[in-house]
Design brief:
The protein is an alpha/beta fold. It folds into 2 domains: 121 residues, Rossmann fold, CATH 3.40.50.2300; 140 residues, Reverse transcriptase/Diguanylate cyclase domain (Alpha-Beta Plaits), CATH 3.30.70. Helix content is 44%, strand content 19%. The termini are far apart. The mean pLDDT is 87.
């Protein structure tokens, strides 16, 4: 069965063009012009992907995305925002809601086709985000690092959370998951404040977070992330166990390292990861 694409676009000409184009590519297409109709259509028939305009007559696309993500039936449907909005805050807002991609008008329909294909391919591979932090991991991280091998002008920060296994054993998985979610959120917020539009945040392992950014952002991000984490981690312990001595287990600590394209070339993703880990302070 062909994948089903839900196109939510209030411009009739754009909607008709996308409908005709993707049908010609072999997809089933459902086209609606209103946010409420999009929610009803996705309830009646779960789409495999949604192309979602932000400016809609009844509610904005962000609200449509939020409602899709809040329903178990559609929480994992890939969403590509299609919009005239170009600001960094608009893009970040869409990504916060779990959008898989973000394309501004006017757009190249061939590029959109490839982004749709890639999003559907990732979706068919199953969940590729960490179930606790919802940050990319596994193949998505390797995909981004592969791009680093053949490009310039990047730096990578590795943030390691030491002694998480000890913390887990002492206080249980609920407490350790709370730590991971908080660490991920603090990194995301730091990037929102000090990073660049195309920065990438993911996890190379449960207790390792990776950030790909522009070299100019590294000093500020390093200082912000380290400061926020070191100030916050103690609060995850019960009052009686905070600080030393007297804690039940080894204290959670943060270690960071940095790697830049100028230190390359790197022969493989494995070499790049190894160099990062060698530099952890």
């Amino acid at each position: 069965m062909s994948p089903t694409i839900l196109v939510v676009e209030d411009d009739p000409d754009v909607a008709d063009m996308l409908n005709a184009y993707f049908q010609a590519q072999g997809y089933e297409v459902i086209t609606v012009n209103w946010g409420g109709d999009a929610l009803q259509a996705s309830h009646d028939r779960r789409p495999d992907l949604a192309i979602l305009d932000i400016r809609l007559p009844d509610m904005d696309g962000y609200e449509v995305a939020r409602r899709l993500r809040s329903q178990r039936r559609t929480e994992d449907v890939p969403i590509i925002f299609l919009t005239e909005k170009r600001s960094r805050d608009d893009r970040l807002h869409g990504l916060e809601l779990g959008a898989d991609d973000y394309i501004t008008k006017p757009f190249d329909v061939q590029e959109l086709r490839l982004r749709v294909r890639n999003a559907l391919r990732r979706s068919s591979q199953g969940p590729l985000n960490n179930p606790v932090t919802n940050l990319p991991e596994g193949a998505l991280v390797d995909e981004r690092l592969q791009e680093c091998l053949v490009s310039n002008g990047w730096s990578i920060l590795l943030v390691c959370l030491d002694h998480l296994d000890d913390f887990h054993e002492a206080y249980g998985f609920v407490a350790s998951d709370d730590v991971l979610r908080a660490v991920g959120l603090m990194i995301v917020n730091s990037v929102r404040d000090l990073g660049s539009l195309n920065d990438f945040i993911g996890q190379t392992s449960t207790a390792e977070f990776i950030l790909v950014t522009h070299p100019d952002n590294v000093p500020g991000l390093t200082d912000r992330i380290r400061t926020r984490l070191e100030q916050s981690l103690d609060y995850f312990y019960p009052l009686k166990d905070r600080g030393y001595p007297g804690a039940k287990t080894k204290k959670l600590t943060v270690r960071m390292s940095q790697l830049s394209a100028s230190q390359g070339p790197f022969a493989s993703i494995e070499e790049l990861k190894a160099k990062l880990r060698q530099g952890v302070d």
